[in-house]
Amino acid sequence: MSEYNFKYQWNLSNDSTWSISEGSVDQIGCIHTCQGLEFDYVGVIIGEDIICRDGQILVDPNKRSSDDYTIKGWKKMKKENPEQTKNLMRQIIKNTYRTLMTRGMKGCYVYVVDNELKEYIKSRLK
């Protein structure tokens, strides 16, 4: 998002009340800090871990943060059971964005990194 010069501080605290703390509106949180909470508005950045190619939604757990424990051990799992792991990673990654995008009671702003996914989503909203 460098073309927009977008910069915000990442929520680095482990404080379970981060999302309702003063100043949190000027920070970026993750699914773990907003799950189970609702806000008037949310902003979601759809990163490189979910893309669209030729009308197909694809996920790439390699593009997730190494700190994301929801997919910990996926490479080992993939060696043992590739198809099951592929389905599980798809489910986890898609669910992450679904959860984030349903936190806003009045609205949700979305920025999509992948241009093809951005166009795919736009076409579905019409």
For the record, give the distance between the C-alpha atoms at the N and C termini, rounded to a whole number.
Answer: 25 Å
Q: Note the overall shape.
A: globular
Number of domains: 1
The total count of strands amounts to: 6
The strand line-up of the biggest sheet is 1-2
The portion of residues assigned to helices is 25-40%
Radius of gyration from CA coordinates: 16 Å
Largest beta-sheet characterization:
2 strands, parallel
What is the H/E string?
EEHEEEHHEH
Our count of helices gives: 4
Kindly report the average pLDDT value: 86
**Low-pLDDT residue spans:** none
Given helix and strand content, the structural type is alpha/beta
Beta-strand fraction estimate:
15-25%
How do the strands and helices of this protein lay out in sequence?
Elements: E1 9-10, E2 27-28, H1 31-34, E3 39-46, E4 50-53, E5 56-59, H2 74-80, H3 82-101, E6 104-112, H4 115-125
Parallel strand pairs: 1-2, 3-6
Antiparallel strand pairs: 4-5
Task: Describe the structure in your own words.
There is one protein chain. This protein is of the alpha/beta class and 126 residues long. The protein has one domain (2-125). Helix content is 33%, strand content 23%. It contains four helices and six strands. The protein has helices at residues 31-34, 74-80, 82-101, 115-125, and strands spanning 9-10, 27-28, 39-46, 50-53, 56-59, 104-112. The strands form three sheets. Strands 1-2 form a two-stranded parallel sheet.
Task: Write out key terms for the chains shown.
126 residues; alpha/beta; 4 helices; 6 strands; 33% helix
